[in-house]
Amino acid sequence: MKSKLDLEIDIIPGIGPKKKTVYYKRGIKTIKDLLMHYPMRYEDRRHFKKIADVHFEEKVCIEGKIISVDVKKPKKNMVILRICIYDNTQKAFLTVFNNPYIQSQLTIGRTIKAYGTAKRINGICNISAPEIDFDNYSKKTGIIYPVYPLTRGLFNDEIIKSIKWILQSLNIKELEYLNSKYRQQLRLCELDDAIKNIHFPKDPLLIKVAKFRLVFDEFFLLNIGLSSIKHGLVKEPGIKHESSEETKSKIEAFVEELPFELTKAQSKVMQEIIDDMASDKPMQRLVQGDVGSGKTVIAMIAAYYAYINGYQCALMAPTEILAKQHYNNFLDIFKNTNAEIRLLTGSTTAKSKRTVYEELLNGSCDIVIGTHALIEDKVKFNNLSLVITDEQHRFGVRQRSKLLLKNHLTVDMLVMTATPIPRTLAFILHGDLDISVIDQMPSGRKPIKTFASKKQEANKVYDFAKQEIALGRQIYIVCPLIEESENLDIQAANELFEKLSESVFKGYKLALLHGKMKAQEKQEIMDAFSSGRIDILISTTVIEVGVNVPNSSVMIIQDAQRFGLSQLHQLRGRVGRGEYQSYCVLLYEGKNKYIEQRMKIMQNSNDGFEISQKDLELRGPGEYFGTRQHGLDNFKLADISKHISILNLAKDFADEVMSEDPELKNEENKAIKIELDKRFNKFMG
Ligand code: ADP
Ligand code: MG
């Protein structure tokens, strides 16, 4: 049975074919769409003021009896009415332009109500182009007035009228899809009440209650939807890596030979991955771990597990520097195995590329490490079972890993990210992934000491850096990316490099690194820095991602006020990776509360999760996530930076429902399934 609420909006009196197309432009097709076209704000017009008490330049409601009307026609097709009213305290003028309807209603002595911005003209209160009600009508005054997002040819009052008609003429109780038991458990109001109150609230408190319900619905349906995608994936059988006493003892021996002992958190995550790989369900796992928590070794163990099962593994990194670094680390850790490991990046020569392609195809290469060069069509595998993508906090990489997976739908997939985001958010962004968290640092790490310093004091900071160099340590100096121009940041880095080499750091070994350098040149510089031949590396943010030089102990960030907190945290994570006490100095400029607040957060916290939460609150989700992501912009009311607690409530409840009834077949969940099918696809665009 089709509900009337699913009918198109032209059943509403006053909406003809022409209006209908205007509504379409705003994405409003059905009655339900219109009900879900929520006000973007409200004007509280409940209280009338005596004219004598009106504050000028403020919006206000007044009422009074008409004492005179003056009609002027300054031009053809232009009529200006000057209505004088009186309310026993003072006179006021209402100026109305081209409104024949109102003109016909103006009898002397009649009560008129008006809302608008009060101005003082010749000492008298004047409202120009006011909104007007007569006598005992209260359509625009005396109420909390909803203001809707509009489009050309669509007027606020038309929307109000249409929604009022729906509420009076149709049964909107049938919108409810959560039973009363659920609603009570979650302390939610009924959906029809929420809809009524979001449009026409009698009281601001009711807006809050309504919003809570509607925001909950958005988050809840998203979470349920993402969970069902995940359950959908499960159906495809994947590769089952053998799990026997033999494989177990091989992995144990591999772990035993590592130059360090795994942290508890690493061991736990390792086990989760091994269990996934041993099952025939394709692994879709995200490993989150703060910078320096030791994610690489987890990738190595997973790769080793694939290798001893006779399969191939691909590891993809976002930059060549990082791919090379992983490659070297893998060579080192796998030196006592027979695994054949290859590197494949954009700067691999055509000839070596061809060799690697061949080895991948005939199975003689076991582990390939590279950049997006791995996703070229020419790359074909013999028996790939595991794809790992590292540092995919630029979301594009996930896209790429998907590409790589195009022909390998059932392989196990492991994604590693250092951008810690709250668990619920991680679910929204990576809804179809299981999540493991490395929530512990290797022991013996000394927390990085962070200082914020005014730019003028840079010389003191550089003196401190010299002391560290004297102790044998190395220094990073990072310049920010300048938004306006790709080249400006390079220029700025260049200038700083020249200035510092000729002044404070004369006689020291400095090098410059930036994004536009040739891959090989970058690599040479990174190699020189890694092996200690360079004291100070000045760079743009190219080093943000994953670089590991444990001997470096100072990170100096220029113009730190330009970076997001999570980014600062990432940069800071380049030091403190070894046994030495490390330092991060934030050089900043500008004086405002916001900047100082941010610097303070960085000084007080070393916890990436906490920092990213603060970052999200301060910057809002748009900037935080960069571009459009996964329908996050398709929320109507929900805002992940403001409504974290509702999000958590919705996520927990979605988990509860899905764990009991993953296919939403139970009587009490059928309505949820129907609502989900209607709304989720639309939501994901
Ligand atoms: P990230 O999680 O940022 O990718 P890495 O995997 O690069 O971190 O590890 C950072 C450093 O910590 C590396 O030098 C690595 O060898 C070292 N490391 C990793 N795990 C441990 C551990 N359990 N104990 C000591 N050092 C470790
Ligand atoms: Mg890493």
TrEMBL record:
InterPro entries from the UniProt entry: ATP-dep_DNA_helicase_RecG, DEAD/DEAH_box_helicase_dom, Helicase_ATP-bd, Helicase_C-like, NA-bd_OB-fold, P-loop_NTPase, RecG/Mfd, RecG_dom3_C
PROSITE patterns (alphabetical): HELICASE_ATP_BIND_1, HELICASE_CTER
CDD domains to which the protein is assigned, alphabetical: DEXHc_RecG, RecG_wedge_OBF, SF2_C_RecG
Xref: SMART domains: DEXDc (SM00487), HELICc (SM00490)
Annotated EC: 5.6.2.4
Example of a GO biological process term: DNA recombination
Domain (Helicase ATP-binding) ranges: 276-438
Catalytic reaction equation(s): Couples ATP hydrolysis with the unwinding of duplex DNA by translocating in the 3'-5' direction; ATP + H2O = ADP + phosphate + H(+)
Function: Plays a critical role in recombination and DNA repair. Helps process Holliday junction intermediates to mature products by catalyzing branch migration. Has replication fork regression activity, unwinds stalled or blocked replication forks to make a HJ that can be resolved. Has a DNA unwinding activity characteristic of a DNA helicase with 3'-5' polarity.
SUPFAM superfamilies cross-referenced by the UniProt entry: Nucleic acid-binding proteins, P-loop containing nucleoside triphosphate hydrolases
Single annotated GO MF: DNA binding
Similarity annotation: Belongs to the helicase family. RecG subfamily.
Ranges where the Helicase C-terminal domain occurs: 457-617
Keyword set includes Nucleotide-binding: yes
Official protein name in the record: ATP-dependent DNA helicase RecG
UniProtKB keywords: ATP-binding, DNA damage, DNA recombination, DNA repair, DNA-binding, Helicase, Hydrolase, Isomerase, Nucleotide-binding
